[in-house]
Amino acid sequence: MPSIPPDRTRLPLSNYRKKRDFRVTPEPAPSAASPLADDQRLAFVVQKHWSGRLHYDFRLELGGVLLSWAVPKGPCYDPKEKRMAIHVEDHPVDYASFEGTIPPKQYGAGTVLVWDHGTWEPVGDAHEAVKAGKLVFRLHGEKLAGLWELVRIAKPEDTQDSWMLFKKRDEWAQPLAEYDVIKALPDSVVTKPLGLVEEREPKSARPSSGVDTEIDLSAAAPAPLPAKLEPQLATPADSLPTGGDWITEAKLDGYRMLARIDKGRVRLFTSGGHDWTKKLVGLAAEVEKLAVSSAWLDGEIVVLKDGIPDFAALQDAMDGPSDRSIVYFVFDVMYLDGKDLRKVPLWARRAALSELLENAGDRIRFSQDFQAPPAQVFEAAAELGLEGLMLKRRDASYVSGRSQTWLKAKCRLRQELVICGFTNRSGTAGEIGSLLLGYYADGTLHDAGSVGTGWDARTARDLWARLTPLEVDSPPFDVAAAKPRRWSRRAAGGERWVQPVLVAELEFAAWTTDGLVRQASFKGLRVDKSASGVIREAGKALSTNPVPQVRVTHPERIIDPSTGVTKLDLARYYASVAQWMLPHLKDRPLAMLRAPNGIAEEVFFQKHAEKTGMPGLTAHDGSLWPGHPSLLTVDTLDALLSAAQMNVVEFHTWNSTVRRLDKPDRVIFDLDPGEGVKWVHIQEAALLVHTLLLELGLKAWLKTSGGKGLHVVVPLTPRLDYEEVKSFSRAFVRHIAKTIPERFSATSGAANRVGRVYVDFLRNGMGQTTAAAFSARARPGMGVSMPVSWEQLSALKSGAQWNVQTAREYLSFQSEDPWADYWSTKQTLASALKRLQ
């Protein structure tokens, strides 16, 4: 929160005082004023206020108070969107930091949060502009930036002082169809600070920090050409640097290569010191054409496809008869014609290198840097499909080994792992089905899980040919001490172990808590790497945006004719709730309800990859039995948005995860009202179900269904199989229906539940699914399934109380997760089963 100066004058806030009882409301009372110098920065705040209905309070500090406007729809970056702004009473400057709940019966009763804050600058004389009814100003906030304007539109006879708030056309302006800041960033900047948007997403390139006119090599030292040189290594970055002076380059997907030039003769070395000159004869000949007698160069060899480095293509080139397609991108020079340059600042080394490579030709290229903020370059790199960025301190020396002056920021997680074993491909002789992986820590080889995708039949045969001669009788790591294996049931027991000498390059989604790779894909062998040096790298794949860019085809397509909700609206909803929803989807097989032409037209369920693939979703081969179609899971944001792109409206999940498919880890009771059942009776039914569960020693959580009813969810330790869990749920429902027959029915069918609530236990069978938390429903209004606390039950108005247009706004006002303890609850049905028998 920026520092906010106190009142500048001693203007009374009589209207503000008259409307509030400060003995009851937590809002700040006006404090004594103290004048400040005119050059103090002015504060602004936008407060999100739910008082019967949602609106935004836009406040600008001026003259010792906060000039205030109520903006029902909130600000918008689209200059075409003119937002109504009602001028209301001035507020004390202290109000800019107020977040809290104004009690019932008080003026403005409801919840207030700080949606944005920062400083503002008037264009011209602000006092005169306000008096004239035309105020132009620039904002420097965490969500809002650029030029804005407030214009009075009220007529003298109007009872309200009406203005219009709108964005001026500048570099920050964006069409509403492309970016809705209200929906994209709905949360408090106090609880979820973002940092200034001008620093996070600069709209213009910063001044060049590139090469000076005269190259300063004064730190170079005369020295003989080193016989060997260990390369500098980058440290994985957890975030992009926001300060300091950095040179930003693309992280190239290839092999690190150092070139040693001695009296015009070239030798090429890998990062591990292996001499690859004979493997790259043609490339070495190209380097020899440089106008230099002695040098050490550092760079990366790649093969380009459509201008982007392709690691698989590089491997093919290395195995082929010619290295003609290989390009050497050089990014540093450590020694040049009798002088050691390692103490020379990086910018000067690169300037000298640029001159050296000026006429080098297409196969020897200078690795260009980008004169734009790292966050901006990172976003572009991610969109292009690059591996990530290299960020190097502009004034840094060249230091062998890993250092903090070189950082690598990955768009996707990539690293090398040791191949410790393999499994056969089912039904195909001479091909591998999966690779079993490991990494070193404290000199010991550790299990890292497995990978079963990323190769074609030719590569599968090549890996087989390489690995079978290396077979050994026992695993190279301690299987007994390792975490439980994550290999598929089909592969279990069929592991074939090998000497840990080969290294695989992997791309994967994340590390699990027990040190295994998730959603891994094989990229190729690293013949330039030594297995003994493979460790688990720190760091993570980065994202610079608080909310992802949502792009869909046919964004204007109407999904729900009753509300006008479009395909883009639905995709934006799923993007905005992803952090809450993904834990409920992750690793759970699912059925997806698709509505290609909207929910008023034909809809259908999809459970398997079938003909229409969705990039990003994980397919689990052989999940049920050999030959069964692959089950699908949505484990990442990309997968969730991919499904939304393919017109998925509803997500229904199993009661078990793919890791323990036959052992459910929850029981769900779906309370479905029959004809004539009032909402209050559904609430009573939920309370009765909860009470009986507590008597059986079982904790349960509540969520709306997004439709007519409610869902009661009981987490379990996954020990019993589906038939046993279903037997419990059947016995439970029959017991409650027998005990209170006037309220409950245990029999499906509309005729059997007229005036009663049907508690559906059939959803607890193998392969049965239930709408996931936060899933939208394909019904008019597009309600969503919302987790709530039991204390909220009495205040609920329907099972579809929140919909895709209101759910995210509701969440932005919630400070506690009502299901926070759900994930850590360990309980079994053993005692409950005995008591129901």
TrEMBL record:
InterPro entries registered for this protein in UniProt: DNA_ligase_ATP-dep_C, DNA_ligase_ATP-dep_cent, LigD_ligase_dom, LigD_PE_domain, LigD_pol_dom, NA-bd_OB-fold, NHEJ_ligase_prk, NHEJ_LigD
Cofactor(s) required, per the database record: Mn(2+)
Enzyme Commission number(s) of this protein: 6.5.1.1
GO molecular function annotation: ATP binding; DNA binding; DNA ligase (ATP) activity; DNA-directed DNA polymerase activity; exonuclease activity; metal ion binding
Catalytic reaction list: ATP + (deoxyribonucleotide)n-3'-hydroxyl + 5'-phospho-(deoxyribonucleotide)m = (deoxyribonucleotide)n+m + AMP + diphosphate
PANTHER family registered for this protein in UniProt: BIFUNCTIONAL NON-HOMOLOGOUS END JOINING PROTEIN LIGD
Protein name as annotated: DNA ligase (ATP)
Organism: Trinickia violacea
Origin organism lineage: Bacteria, Pseudomonadati, Pseudomonadota, Betaproteobacteria, Burkholderiales
